[in-house]
């Protein structure tokens, strides 16, 4: 594996950092999130035209750039540095992979080109606060119980016999939908078939669908706007066919999303650290810059090491998305610690709610609530790697797992019958007490 960035990737990074440096400062971010859309539409179109940013994950045959997940992660590292409020994550990282994997040829041809050009934005709507579970970031749930499980709650779907060509109707509610108030297309996870034969499917809902109610929510991190989606007998189109493996597609998308989010968090942590270093060089106390004090230097050095370790993990996950869970956990932790230290090292001004350092702290807290928490990300990664496998499951066929009691004669006979190589002598040797410790060496006077 060649981990070096190509010239094209370096150019994407340089151009994106230059544009965002001019158009996406802290004041511009605060102004953009208070607009109706929750982001700067003009800047979004500029990024789409000049860099093809929303089309990075779209294949060339559908008008996209056709890049790898590593390119998308690299771009999101720069957007994370600026805390760019945009529909990039929901559109390119969540919806494009699902439409590509599950959609029919007609659906891909109709949806992917406008998504690639940025004229259409999309988002994934799941019921409750279950986005991390739906993407298999914090646990496996192939049954889709997080979406309602066929019981009351969640989003339910039923076939519409009156619709031409066979349609669907959705009823229910989904909270905490990223960019749900402004997205032109919703991918809604819903259950159909009743409780006995319940199965989870994805449906396409247009923004102008009758019965669709979208309410923007007040959230901790305004740079990630969220909405509550209410579906009141809304007409919908099935994404793909009824035999699609939706859980597998969501899990595959979750692996890519975790790598992208890790890179984004690393970018935010790196920028928060850089701003803090710049501040401690200028702020003076007792006639000298506070950055010259050894205690401050040590704290900043620890932050630098943690951010660089998270960056290495994020880059590795960009090439191998299966490692995205651990990379995301490390990156979110690095962002939380760095943002918290930034507030501390800015002193009294840093504790004011309006200070720019709180933008990074809010992003850290909100991302961990949406896609974590960190300890569950690590626990799920450990389960997938089999680090805490039950020892009894590893016992070869025909053998019994070791127990705490002493073998009886019947147990020994059963062992001998199951394994002819086992003998009473060997069994007695295995249960014999361990040899005594060797005597301690005598002390020699020097």
From TrEMBL:
What's a Pfam family this protein contains?
Acyl-CoA_dh_N
Q: Which family does it belong to?
A: Belongs to the acyl-CoA dehydrogenase family.
Q: What is the protein name stated in its UniProt record? A: Alkylation response protein AidB-like acyl-CoA dehydrogenase
Acyl-CoA dehydrogenase/oxidase N-terminal domain span = 6-118
Q: Which UniProt keywords apply?
A: FAD, Flavoprotein, Oxidoreductase
Q: Which organism is it from?
A: Streptomyces avidinii
Location of the Acyl-CoA dehydrogenase/oxidase C-terminal domain: 259-384
* Pro residues: bias regions: 432-446
């Amino acid at each position: 594996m060649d981990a070096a960035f190509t010239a094209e990737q370096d150019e994407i990074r340089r151009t994106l950092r230059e544009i965002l440096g001019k158009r996406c400062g802290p004041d511009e971010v605060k102004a953009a999130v208070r607009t109706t859309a929750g982001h700067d539409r003009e800047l979004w179109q500029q990024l789409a035209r000049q860099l093809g940013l929303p089309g990075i994950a779209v294949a060339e045959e559908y008008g996209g750039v056709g890049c790898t997940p590593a390119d998308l992660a690299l771009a999101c590292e720069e957007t994370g540095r600026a805390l760019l409020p945009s529909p990039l994550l929901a559109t390119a990282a969540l919806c494009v992979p699902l439409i590509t994997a599950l959609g029919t040829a007609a659906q891909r041809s109709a949806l992917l080109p406008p998504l690639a050009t940025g004229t259409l934005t999309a988002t994934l709507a799941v019921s409750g606060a279950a986005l991390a579970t739906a993407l298999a970031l914090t646990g496996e749930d192939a049954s889709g119980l997080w979406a309602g499980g066929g019981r009351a709650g969640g989003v339910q779907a039923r076939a519409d016999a009156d619709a031409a060509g066979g349609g669907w109707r959705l009823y229910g509610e989904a909270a905490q939908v990223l960019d749900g108030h402004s997205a032109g297309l919703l991918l809604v996870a819903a259950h159909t078939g009743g409780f006995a034969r319940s199965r989870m499917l994805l449906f396409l809902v247009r923004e102008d669908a009758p019965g669709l109610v979208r309410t923007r929510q007040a959230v901790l991190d305004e740079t990630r706007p969220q909405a509550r989606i209410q579906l009141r007998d809304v007409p919908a189109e099935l994404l793909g066919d009824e035999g699609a493996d939706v859980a597998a597609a969501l899990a595959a998308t979750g692996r890519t999303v975790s790598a992208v989010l890790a890179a984004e968090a690393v970018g935010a942590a790196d920028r928060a650290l850089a701003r803090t270093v710049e501040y401690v060089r200028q702020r003076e106390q007792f006639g000298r810059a506070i950055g010259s004090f050894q205690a401050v230097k040590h704290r900043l050095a620890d932050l630098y090491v943690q951010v660089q370790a998270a960056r290495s993990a994020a880059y590795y996950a960009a090439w191998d998305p299966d490692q995205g869970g651990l990379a995301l956990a490390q990156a979110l932790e690095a962002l939380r610690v760095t943002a918290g230290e930034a507030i501390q090292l800015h002193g009294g001004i840093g504790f004011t709610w309006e200070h720019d350092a709180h933008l990074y702290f809010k992003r850290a807290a909100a991302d961990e609530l949406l896609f974590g928490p960190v300890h569950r990300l690590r626990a799920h990664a450990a389960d997938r790697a089999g680090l805490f496998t039950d020892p009894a499951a590893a016992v070869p066929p025909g053998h019994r797992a070791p127990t705490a009691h002493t073998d009886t004669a019947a147990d020994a006979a059963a062992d001998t019958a199951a394994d002819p190589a086992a003998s009473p002598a060997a069994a007695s040797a295995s249960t014999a007490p361990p040899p005594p410790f060797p005597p301690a060496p005598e002390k020699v006077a020097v």
